[in-house]
Amino acid sequence: MSEFQIAQTGGERGFSPAFLFCDHATNTLPVAYNRLGLSAEQLADHIAWDPGAGALTRALAARLQARALYCGYSRLLIDPNRGVERDDLIIAQSDSITIPANTQVTDEERRHRIARYFDPYHDLLDRELDAHMALYDDPLIISIHSFVRALRYTHAHRPWEAGVLWKDDEQSARLMIDSLHGAGLDVGDNKPYSAKAYNYTIDRHVGARGLRHLTLEIRQDLLVDETHVRQWADLLMPPLQALLGEDCVAKSV
Questions:
Q1: Peptide bond before 192: cis, by omega within 30 degrees of 0?
Q2: In CATH, what number is assigned to the domain containing residue 100?
Q3: Whole-prediction pTM value?
Q4: Does residue 92 lie within any of the structural domains?
Q5: What pLDDT, on a 0 to 100 scale, did the predictor assign at position 154?
Q6: Sign of the four-CA dihedral 18, 23, 25, 31
Q7: How far apart are CA 24 and CA 1, in angstroms?
Q8: CA nearest 104: which of 47, 36, 28, 27?
Q9: Is the residue at 2 inside a domain?
Q10: Which percentage of the chain shows pLDDT scores above 90?
Q11: What's the rounded Cα separation, in Å, for the pair 172 and 89?
């Protein structure tokens, strides 16, 4: 993303009942924030975004001929997957790295980031879902994230290659988990995070609408390049095809 944007959308409406979104697609920051005081190397770290998640979202959206929404700013500016009442909406430290510009965020600055960045993204997601629901009676909403293999402060390796997070739609989650298990993968059931504990964007927009949905977490070291992304798209397409129906899915690209 060469220019800073609140969000980007891709895909034409009307081709697939699937709709994808990626909360942590990029580490982009407005120029005025001067990288929040971080180095380029720190900003490339998982603390600033979900590496590989945006690329996987795009690959799946292309195969499904589906519309997708990508948040256009780093989670370090303000995290779109946290509620405005939360202390970790704007974090001062993440995985042992201090975020200098976030250590003394004033109430005025917090309100500014909510109004300028957080609210417009969620308003756009609302509009996108309303438009999608006008086209399909039973859409499938897919949220894509990625997770780091080991956090610095624990050094403990997370064994899962993927995680499926769920709370309201167990049926879709079980189909995905069973399919990935059948492919020989180590899949976390509500791991490394539990949607039963917290999954803000899904709860606010998707669960509240009673829509079928999936939240997928793929380990970041397994999404390092285009080949890896394509392999994961290959693995995810059969269960997605089963959930959507063959006539709703495009051929592999």
A1: yes
A2: 3.40.630.40
A3: 0.94
A4: yes
A5: 76
A6: positive
A7: 13
A8: 36
A9: no
A10: 91
A11: 29
